[in-house]
Amino acid sequence: MSEHLPENWPAMSIEKANTLLSMPGSPLALKEVEIDGQTYQTYAEAPPSLRELFLLGRMSFGDREFLIYEDERVTYEALARAAAKF
């Protein structure tokens, strides 16, 4: 199997890739937050809650399809209306 891998395989270590992906200024930058006395690593640019993520999806993608199952299609907007009604 190793005879089929590129000469420079792997191009970088997982640790190096994680460092590059999570460094300040990157879309996946990390920050530490304290929740109930515990310190956690979180994404610096992520919405602060699932509610905010839900609303951001509705606002950003309204009429685009969110869920597809066989012949059924549900848009972000339709999902938001159904959740609000629920």
Description of the molecule:
The chain is of the alpha+beta class and 86 residues long. The protein has helices at 14-22, 50-61, 76-85, and strands at residues 30-35, 38-43, 65-69, 72-75. It is flat and about 55 Å long.
Task: Return Rg in Å.
Answer: 20 Å
Rounded mean pLDDT score = 90
Query: What structural class is derived from the secondary structure elements?
Result: alpha+beta
Looking across the biggest beta sheet, what order are the strands in? 1-2
Task: Chart the SSEs and their pairings.
Elements lengths: L13 H9 L7 E6 L2 E6 L6 H12 L3 E5 L2 E4 H10 L1
Antiparallel strand pairs: 1-2, 3-4
Helix pairs in contact: 2-3
